[in-house]
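TolC family protein structure dump, as promised
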Amino acid sequence: MNIKILFSSLIVFLCIAKTSAQEVLTIEDAMKIALENNFEIKIAKNNSKISETNVTVGNAGMLPVATASVTDNNSVQNSSQVRQDGTSTSLNNAKNNSLNYGVSLGWTVFDGMKMFARLDQLKELQKLGDAELKRTVLMKIGQVNSAYYDLVQQQQQLSALDTTIVISKQRLTLAQNRFTIGKASKLEVLNAQVDLNSDQAAIIRQKESYKNAKILLNQHLARDPQIDFTVTNEVTVDNKLVLIDLMDLAKKQNPALESQIINKRIAELQLKQVKADRYPVVNLTSGYNIAESQSSLGFTTESSAKGFNYGFNATLNIFDGFNQHRNEKVAKLQIENTQIAIDQQNMILNTQLSTAFQTYLTNLELIELEEDNETIAKQNLDITLDKFRIGTITTIDFRTAQLNYVNAKVRYSNAQYEAKLSEIALKELAGNINF
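structure tokens r here:
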């Protein structure tokens, strides 16, 4: 059997044996788990629900307010009275008590349209909460994607090191056989053993990185860090992204920009509420009250009253030390600031997209280059391995070819990972990560 086929079959068998008892976590499954479990997403969802709950006509001040009240006053006093005819009377420990209870209703029927502006502002605050939720989800899904494909990269590098271990063991076996029959020196065997030990040390370090990458991904998924699983072994990079399309999407979907636009609308509605203070405020009042009182001394020892009352009141700010003018000026400056923030966010967004896109293009080129390098390094290793088996090449040349192949595989894996990170960053900026 061709030794190359033997090596490939052995590697596949080892991988299957390792993964057969483990959960295979896809990127779709990882994103689904994160959406359900991630703590920051849960908090953002609750905050969004709070903003939604606050959007009511009552919270805007459009509905009447009814209150029930009861007041009971009692006293014990030493009292004396002198009447107009000169007679006097006194009483120690005179008891007095009064009891008032009833229901009152107040309703602001006009406040310069402030209540309507307040309702619209509550609706905009709900949109702001939704935008914050979207920002949190995009950020966390981006982190999950990055952690997932980092784990894929670590897994690929572990596979590359597994390959070099198999080759190094085969090299050691060949060196020992040649030494036994007198065709090689002890030095060749020792060199092969040292290189095998170095490869085993490297794979131990790589296993540590692989395990830590799993723990980090479990953290993003808000689950037990010791849950074991494997991931798919491929990194598929979307190589058809277009900068102009991403910029157009970002203007419509980027949550940071969307938040700034909403903040401007909130500031405009705040100005409406401030301007409403120039108009009168009209309140309707009504109620039903019962009053009872008792007194041990005086002309009236008992009294009671009950009945319905109603009316209205109106207030108008005539002069408040120019505070109205100041408040309006401040509100207008706040609107100006929000527009500046929108322009700034647009510039930041375009800059981030442009730089990320350039990195993305560079990484796509590196993928093609490193893929070719891996193919060439594999061919070189195959030829070198055949020559080493028949003893026509030195161990140094063989080791160089072996390391070149491993390094080429690692660089190709890194190039794919970096390109995927660039893709994720671009889609996150454009608000277009699919989940």
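The radius of gyration is 40 Å.
lmk if u need the other ones
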